[in-house]
Structure formats: structure tokens, C-alpha cells
Design goal:
Elements: E1 10-16, H1 20-31, E2 38-44, H2 51-62, E3 68-73, H3 79-87, E4 95-98, E5 104-105, H4 109-123, E6 127-137, E7 143-148, E8 168-170, H5 171-176, H6 188-198, E9 202-214, H7 223-232, E10 239-240
Parallel strand pairs: 1-2, 1-4, 2-3, 6-9, 7-10
Antiparallel strand pairs: 4-8, 5-9, 6-7, 6-8
Helix pairs in contact: 1-2
Amino acid sequence: MTEIIPDGLLSVVIPNYNYARFVSESIASIADQTYGPIELIVVDDASTDNSVEVIRAALDAAADRLFSTKLIALPDNVGKLGALNRAMPHARGHYFVIHDSDDLLSPGYAERTIAELEAARANDPAIAIVYSDCMLISQTGEVIDRGKSATFDPALIERYSFIPEPAMCLAAPVMETAPYDETIRKGTKHHKWKRIIANGWKGLHIPEPLFSYRMHDGNLSGIGKRVIAEVERGEGGERILSGYWPLQTTER
């Protein structure tokens, strides 16, 4: 029998590479959402640690709170955008979130951002993205500072990466701009958002911290090393994240 896809299904894709120490908590933050239904697709990008075993256990623990779960374990490393490309054929939702495997969503993240998205689209159907500020947390989960995104400006995306992962998005704009360029290994979210915005879609910024962005020395963007060094020097305060996130590049 053909599975019936519920209205309002949210597809969440978590690409993972060697984050066994974080990914279970990240998966739990999806299962703890006050919104439903949610399908969760985790793509392990040929991790060399015990990520696959950790992911399987975390998905089993979360299965009764989600519409569906799926693990795609890749035999070869293809990068974050490659992992996203391989998840796309399995995503069936009306809404779409890419969630990094070391970060955490607040329990009300999906419910709040979807409500804001639908309210904004009633006035402007070109709005397809809702994103928020975040709390910067340490490797062990302690709050460091607040990270701030910028008010949406399509011209700004050419010069700065200011839309975070995660951001709530209609699934259709994500799908129509795929597949994404797998040679891009840093600034991957910048590449994705640039493509979506180039197709005429707009975003909406919520100036509140609705997710936690983990700082450590393995962050793909390099932000963790920089923020940790700043904190060690005693430099505190809010951080404008567009000054930290790289633009798209093939550098590794």
C-alpha cells in the first residue's frame, strides 16, 4: 500500500561526519519538537568514528515521536552538500530543515517558525525562509554568548553569509535548486541560500535565539576555533554571525 503523507509534514535532514559525540543529542532535539508530523533523515558521510551505531540507537529511541526515520550510511565521503543531495529523493515534506549534527533546536522551534512562515506568506507568497538568532554554546553545552543574524536583504547574500543552518524553508524551493555543487566544502549553507534567493524567494528574520549553535574546534565553518579563542582572550558579547561564516568555497 502507498503510505499516506500527512499535511504539513516537515522533513529534517541531518548530515553527519564524525560527530558521534554530538549527534544523539541533536536527534533528540528533533524528536522533542512540539510540532508534528516530522520525518527525520540522517545521512552519515562515511564517518570513521562510531557515528553509525550512535545514530541507529538515537533513531530507535526517537522513532515513536516521529512520523518516520531513516539512516543513509554513505560508503564514501561526499561532503555536506553531497549528503544533502543524497537525502533529497527521500524527503517528502511540505517544509524542510537542514540541521547540523552538533547543534540543538529549542522544543518550539518548528512550531514557531512554521507559524511565522505561514503568517508572512499570507502577505507575501515569495517568502519561503524563516530564520532566527541563536545561542552559542560550548562543546559541553554551556552558554557562551548570543549569535545574531541579519534582517533579510537579497543583496546582502552576495557579500555575507547571514542565514543559518537550521532555517525553516518551504521544501519546494530547496528541491528546485538541487542538486547542489558538491565541490563546495565550506560555506555550504551560503551556496544553498544563494541559489534559492536567486530564484526569487525571500526570507524573514526572527530576532530571537531559537536554536543552539555549538562551538568547538571541528566546526566546518571554522567559527568554533575563532569564538573559543576570543572567549579565552576575554572577548565577550553578542556576535554578528555574518562576520564569522565563510562564503562558498571549494577549500577544505
